[in-house]
């Protein structure tokens, strides 16, 4: 196996499945199964989950809400998703810990780096909820930050599309997919992988990002087995 420790970033919207809002239990169970297959191989898995299926601070602010309040709501939404994912993983017999960037002691452990690493070494999946704990950030930034902190080998960004294209494949039929692309090329071509804060943090720390389609069953395990799935952003 190419990677010993991965950080999987899942968007909140991914959890909606066919729904317009909230969490689809079927999708959650599918994700749990896929993650179980990975842990069964002995790969250490940490997960950062978004909250966009429930609330986004920017959306609140555009309706007149205070941005910081909205971001707090967004961060709590990621904790809700984290609890749902934890429950689904435990149903699949995967030992799991949820650590949050905002302390909610009755519900989850606080984020403690050394503890998180210990859990991973013991084969537990660690879900990081609450983003970075700060407003004006995204869970992509949280994913990169946590990945660096726990010394993950790679970030796997599960999305709806199967990689990075020369143009938006939903708008331009001639768009082709990259198997590999450098951080510099992503920036110079104006391609969208993550928000700028998250992306430059990854680049500065030489942490590769693989963008792949998490909604096709089996993709995660194929990717980790070395199959040519998704697009890898590297130095
Ligand atoms: N958020 C935040 N700080 C963080 C991470 C997230 O304030 O470090 C808030 C922000 O309002 C964001 C929401 O949580 O809109 C949900 O996160 P995100 O939009 O990244 O979720 P995703 O798009 O991955 O579902």
UniProtKB/TrEMBL annotation:
Residues 4-213 form the Aspartate/glutamate/uridylate kinase domain. Its EC number is 2.7.4.22. One of its GO terms (biological process) is UDP biosynthetic process. UMP binds at residues 51, 71, 132-139. Pfam families: AA_kinase. Inhibited by UTP. It catalyses: UMP + ATP = UDP + ADP. Keywords: ATP-binding, Cytoplasm, Kinase, Nucleotide-binding, Pyrimidine biosynthesis, Transferase. Pathway: Pyrimidine metabolism; CTP biosynthesis via de novo pathway; UDP from UMP (UMPK route): step 1/1. It is found in: Cytoplasm. One of its GO terms (molecular function) is ATP binding. ATP binds at residues 9-12, 52, 56, 159, 165, 168. InterPro entries: AceGlu_kinase-like_sf, Asp/Glu/Uridylate_kinase, Uridylate_kinase, Uridylate_kinase_bac. Catalyzes the reversible phosphorylation of UMP to UDP. Homohexamer. Belongs to the UMP kinase family. This is Uridylate kinase. It comes from Nonlabens xylanidelens. The lineage of its organism: Bacteria, Pseudomonadati, Bacteroidota, Flavobacteriia, Flavobacteriales.
